[in-house]
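Posting for a labmate who doesn't have an account.
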Amino acid sequence: MYTVVGLGNPGGEYTHTRHNTGRMLVSKFAEKNDIALTEKKKPAVLVGSGTAHGEKVRVVVPNTFMNVSGKAVAPYIKSVPAAKKLIVVYDDIDLPLGKVRLSFGSGAAGHNGVKSIERAVKTKNFIKMRVGVSKTVRGKVKKPVGEKAVVEYLLHNFTKGDLEKVQGPVQERVFMALETILETHDPVKGMNAVNGLPA
């Protein structure tokens, strides 16, 4: 069984923030595939299981805050080998809005939610799906400078136009990547499907 995790923060005030990109997209993936999510208290999580593209899938949306996402994920990943079928979807401020990039076994690159999961499941060897949230100027990423500015940017709502892009073409790319992995059981084919697409 694959486990698909969407990272973000719980609470209505965070629903459409950039830092909730993973949570938004994975919740939509569950909805598209008729996987009902049920709220559980221990760990604090929305979770549901079903079938997508011929494969059994568990969808996990942590109801913990981002920095302790691992607490919500660890009960569903019981071993290092099981982590190979873990797919974590999350925002990446180093990528432009519209870019989706998959990797396997790479580091967290400073993302605290991913760091928390790596600690909790005791390995970096799982599938990471980074979704760009940064603005671009003349084709180059223009991200905020300084930790405070980065936090403010990530916790701010998407503009209407950017949210439409996330819920449209970005969502389609994420779904295509997930579909490819589930159908082929090969993360490399998922990478080939989306990594080279322009933002």
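Reply:
Got it, the structure tokens are right above this. The mean pLDDT is 96.
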